[in-house]
Amino acid sequence: MFKNMKLGFKLTIGFGFVLVFTGIVALVGMRGFDDIRDRVSKAKAVDDIVKELFEAMDNEKDFIITGEFFYSENVRMQINNIYEQLKTTNKLFHQKINKDQMDQVASEVKLYEKTFIEYVNLAKEKDIAMKHMQDKAKEALGKSEAICLNLQTELDKLVTDHAEVIKDKNLKLDDTNKLVNYRLEAKAYRKLITHGEKQYLKEWNAVNQRISLLTDDMKSRFKQEKNIRQADRLLENHRKYQEAVLRYLDTESDADKKRVSQTAESATKEMNAILTNQKAQLAEAQADFEAKLNKKFIKVNDANRVVQFFLVSRRDEKEFIISNDMTYAEAVKANFAKTLDLAQNITSEFKSDLNIKQGNALISALKAYKETFDSFVSLTRKQWEANKKMAENAAKTQKVCREAYQDQESKMSNEIAFSKQLILGGLIAALLLGIIASFLITRNITGAIDLLLLHLKEVAKGDLSRDIPATLLILREEMGQMAIALQDLVNAQRKKARLAEAIADGDITLDVEVTFHNDLLGKALEKMTFSLRNLLSQVNEAATRVDSGATQVSDSSQSLSQGTVQQASSLEEATSSMVEIESQTRMNAENASQANQLAEKSLKEANHGTKEMANMVAAMNEINDSSRAIAKIIKVSDEIAFQTNLLALNAAVEAARAGRHGKGFAVVAGEVRNLASSSARAAGETSELIEIALKKVEKGNEIAEKTADALNKIAVSARKVAVLVNEIAAFSEEQSQGIAQVNQGLGQIEQITHQNAANAEETASAAQELDRQASDLREILGQFKLSKDLTGQQMSARTSDAHPLSKILANGQNPEITRPEKLENIQSSELKHNEDIIDPKHIIPFDEHEFDEF
């Protein structure tokens, strides 16, 4: 039964099973691909969460560095994107472990968001605290400067008051010296009067009058009760002295003379007492002034130190704000402790209510500043902790996402392995089934085909003596029909072989006899003979034309080969030039990179120079302040020199009064006066120099500020230069890559050009060979015999009377080739009765157009 089945039905059954298994394998593969695509989409969703987290962290760092709230808004926006991505990703997952992972990620992201919001709020609080700290710092600095100004005012007032006191003391001392001089003058006049020269009595009275008036004036200016009593006693003794002298002039007795001496001695004693007391008061006033001045200087110095310590604390505060280094915070605390202790010490030494009030206000301002600074440091520590928590939350989020990603990768790998196993199993099953089916079908078919193939090989070799085995002729399926058709073909070929032998011998003059009007092969041989005659004539002419054309092609190919070689040489030179350009471009890129590094280094140096210039401006301001303080001290020294000069003058007066005994003291007083004058001149010159120095320092400050501005502009320009040089480096690198690609393309063109040159040489060689073969072809065509009697018209007339198939062949049309299914309609009995006559329908016709390829 299986042997008699149609071959198509057998193949359909075999391939049907294979296709069924193939479809199953395809369905399994498609299902596996869908699962893999689902895993990939889930892994990508997790990876998108990580990317959004990284972008949020980048904006977080930008916010921490710059403090711009624009970046905080970006962080919040990206966190919202993460939430949206988590919702989308959570919908993709179906397993509890993955949903738990996404819930954990959401929890960590919420903690991260909460910590970041806390960090942002701390930043806002820090800004407020910084403003308060700056306000308190300005307040404390203003209070300290107010104390300095008040102390300086008190110092100036002390110097002014002392000058008034010294002036008053000196006037009183001068008046006392005048009294002494008046007493000496009166004594001289008294001696003259007592010796009988009465004409000097009037001058003596005038001198005594001046003594009385001057004593009354001094008494009115005395403030101490002791001095007033001394003045009263002096007036009383001087009055008694005058009365005694006048009485002595009347009596000229020894008792009155003694009385004169006693009263004169008493008056002189009171004058000396007043003089001694005034000198003592002057010395005491000077000592008191020096003590008070020393205390004031100490207070002013301490107040200036408070300002200096506080400014140092402010400097460390700025460094802490910029760098967040706790070393600077500790330095601020240390300097602040010194500042506060010094302020408290100054306040404890103040006597006036105003100074005490200012000192207490300064202490309160300093403590308020300390509180705001401690608050700022505390907020900074909290920010550090928040930043640490954000990093931990981000790390946990990344870890969970990485675990989820790895879980999806693992599941995807397992699904791929499972799909591979299913596909491999299905392929093995389909392969086994196909092998079994193909073995059964092939074994059924190949037996008959082997016999037919063996006979066909013999026929192909030209052996037409063997017949088809009878075992094949009795089969009812396609193989049996093919065996019958092959046997009929062998019989027909035997008859036509003899005609073909004659044509093969080159005798084309023979005419083919057609024994049957449907003898397609006979008519085809007849047509072939006619066509061969025309063909050989045309081939002969074509061979002549080919011979001439081959010569032209050979010459053109030689010219093409030479031009291609020249073109290859030019391309080699162009390639060499492009290599040099590429090298120079790469060198330009390297130089631009080095220039970029130098520009960045210049930018750093310019920034460093700007910072150093700012420090120099601050130092010059401090020098300016110190110079002004020194100028004030010089002013005090000038005033002291003035007072010293007055004291030296008084000493010279006293030395003059002492006579020869005071001569040495007069010399010393003169030297002291000279030294005081020298000190005054030196103080004046020093003051002028300090004024000049102050002007130069102010000018230096202006120059330093201009220099700082210039350095800032240089830094900006250097930054722009760095950006431009960096862009030049990038463009040069891109240009180098582009030139390298062009160079590579030129190399390929050069290679193709060399190949074209080789092809041109081969074409020239082939053209020469074609020329030689055309000559050989003409010699071969000379071996054929062509009939001169048979014309194309006669052949056409004969073919017009033949079978209609001949008309089709004559018109150049392709007849339909007999299909195998048409052979099924042929009955085997008809084939047996027509062994000698072959039906043209069963013969595959030859078309004359098949020779066009030759």
UniProtKB/TrEMBL annotation:
> According to its UniProt record, which protein family does this protein belong to?
Belongs to the methyl-accepting chemotaxis (MCP) protein family.
Listed name of the protein: Methyl-accepting chemotaxis protein signailing-domain containing protein
Q: Report the superkingdom from the record.
A: Bacteria
Q: Which residues form the Methyl-accepting transducer domain?
A: 542-771
Q: Boundaries of each HAMP domain copy?
A: 443-498
What GO molecular function annotations does the UniProt record carry, in alphabetical order?
transmembrane signaling receptor activity
User: Cross-referenced InterPro entries, in alphabetical order?
Assistant: HAMP_dom, HBM, MCP_chemotaxis, MCPsignal_dom
A single Gene Ontology CC term: plasma membrane
UniProt keyword terms in alphabetical order: Chemotaxis, Membrane, Transducer, Transmembrane, Transmembrane helix
Q: Where are the transmembrane segments?
A: 12-33
| Annotated localization | Membrane
Gene Ontology biological-process annotations = chemotaxis; signal transduction
Q: Biased composition, Polar residues: where in the chain?
A: 549-577
**Which parts of this chain are annotated as the region Disordered?**
547-577
Q: What is its main location?
A: membrane
